[in-house]
Every structure is written in C-alpha cells, then in structure tokens.
Amino acid sequence: MSGPSFSIRKRLADCKAAGKPFVFPWVGMPGVAQAAQIARMGFDAVALDLQHSTIDMGEAAKMVAAINMVGTPSVLRILWNDPGIVGFAFDMGAAAVIAPMTNSVAQVEALVKAAKYPPVGQRSWGGYTMLQAAGVTAAEYLKESNKQTLVFAMVETQDALDVLDKIAAVKGLDGLFVGPSDLSIALSNGAKIDRLGAQTLDVMKKVAASCMAKGLVAGAFAGTIDGVKAYHEIGFEFIAGPTDTELSRMGATAFLTDVGKG
Predict the structure, then answer these.
(1) For residue range 141-200, what is the model confidence (pLDDT) as tens digits?
(2) Rounded to an integer, what is the distance from CA 187 to the centroid of its chain?
(3) With 258 labelled, which of 6, 33, 137, 235 sits at a CA distance of 20 to 30 A?
C-alpha cells in the first residue's frame, strides 16, 4: 500500500525496529500552506488538533489533503467522540484518528464502531478522498482499511483509568493515547498540570503496559524533547512532539541567537 494514509503502520514498524519513537508535530493553527510546509519537515506524520484550536472541519479537510499530497500521513485529534466526526476524519484521508471523551468501555466501543467497517464496526462507505490518500482501489480500501488505519482512544481521566484494561480489550481498537495535561489535572484533583511528574509517569507506565499486553499502540502528547524522551523510555511509541507555535518559537530563538540578538 503506497498512499500516505496506508503507510502509517509501516512507518510505525520501521521506527520500532530502529528503536526510535514515531514523532509528529501537533498543529493548531489553520492554514493549508503551513500544513504542507510542516509535512515537508521530516516528521513521521502531522497531527491536526480539532479539539483545542481554531481549525474547523472544513479547514481540516483542506489541510489533510495538503499533508497527504506531500506523502506524509495525517493524524486528526477530533473535536469529540462523535460517529459523524470519526467517519468524516477517515473519509477525508486521515491515517489515524485520536478521539477524546473515551472514558468508558461503551464510549470506546462506539468509537470503534464508527471507525471500522463490518464485521468489526459499522463505518459508512463514502468519501472518495480516502481512496486517493490510500492510493488504492475501492475494493482494496474496503479490504485493508480496518487494518491499515489507526483509531486511538484517549486516556486522560480517572474514569478511563478505572476501566483501563477493559478499554484496552475492546476489539478493533488500535491504540491508547494519553493526554498528560488533563491526566495530571485529574490525578491532582485540579491542582496542577505536571506532564513529567512522578505520579503522571507512574500512571502512564500502566497505560503503556496495558497496551503491550493487548497488542495496542501506546501514544501520548509530549510537546517537548524531554517529554518525547521520557515517554519513549517508559514504553510509548506514537508521540506528539512540538506544537506548530513551538516549532516557530524554536526557529525564531535559534535564528535570533545566531545573529546575536537572542
């Protein structure tokens, strides 16, 4: 399978074989040109955040197309765990979907039902952009998409942690994705955001172990180089690195330092 939306599993496998994390930026600013440029920077994929950004679904469709045109897989963290939004994301050519609000077995089962075709789920057929992004015929897409595309349930609340192993056992789920900011807020009863705190990391180790036991992909938002390294060390392989604003800040800081104005 040659298209970007069907290449994500191979890229993941190649990173794992090399002992390296699968790393991608987290984009929250709308803009087709920017998305295409970031897709050319050498990351393993590009993620668009629809939940906490000004990217709407119409703009996301254009940005996914631009990312796919470069040959890079696109990942969508969708606005909500809603069947219509899940189907939209995959129909627009996303290689992976990360869904928030997956705090129970029933919610994760609903997510999988929307993301997978029968017999695993009940995804509706349509949206020929998906065929272009996968680089296959309709018959091939129907046959392979359940295996080639990825759907992640977010783990970021105490409710989800209470049924972690049951969520991980949901048939058709491809991975768990930790939102460590919300997770640390939940663990501290609203007292702090502590993405690299001991308590947060201890819980994240349990998530990674659950993924390993069930054959799932362990994912998380890191945001920083230190975060990527720390999460990879405890078993995470699918990791969001810098945000688009952080990429800009890092470039500006390096430039200003080099010209003596930093």
Answers:
(1) 999 999 999 999 999 999 999 999 999 999 999 999 999 999 999 999 999 999 999 999
(2) 22
(3) 33
* Residue 189 structure tokens: 């009863």
Percent of the chain as helix, strand, coil, to the nearest 5: 50, 15, 35
52 is catalytic: yes
Which distant-in-sequence residues (6+ apart) come within 8 Å of 203 by Cβ? Answer: 161, 183, 187
Element (H or E) spanning 25, and its range? strand 22-27
Domain limits of the chain? 4-155+162-258
> Strand 96-99 and strand 22-27: pairing?
unpaired
Catalytic-labelled residue, pool 10, 20, 40, 52: 52
Q: Which residues contact 116 (CB under 8 A, 6 or more apart)?
A: 123, 146, 151, 172
- Which CATH number describes the domain made up of 4-155+162-258? 3.20.20.60
Report the candidate in 65, 73, 90 with the shortest Cα–Cα distance to residue 15: 73
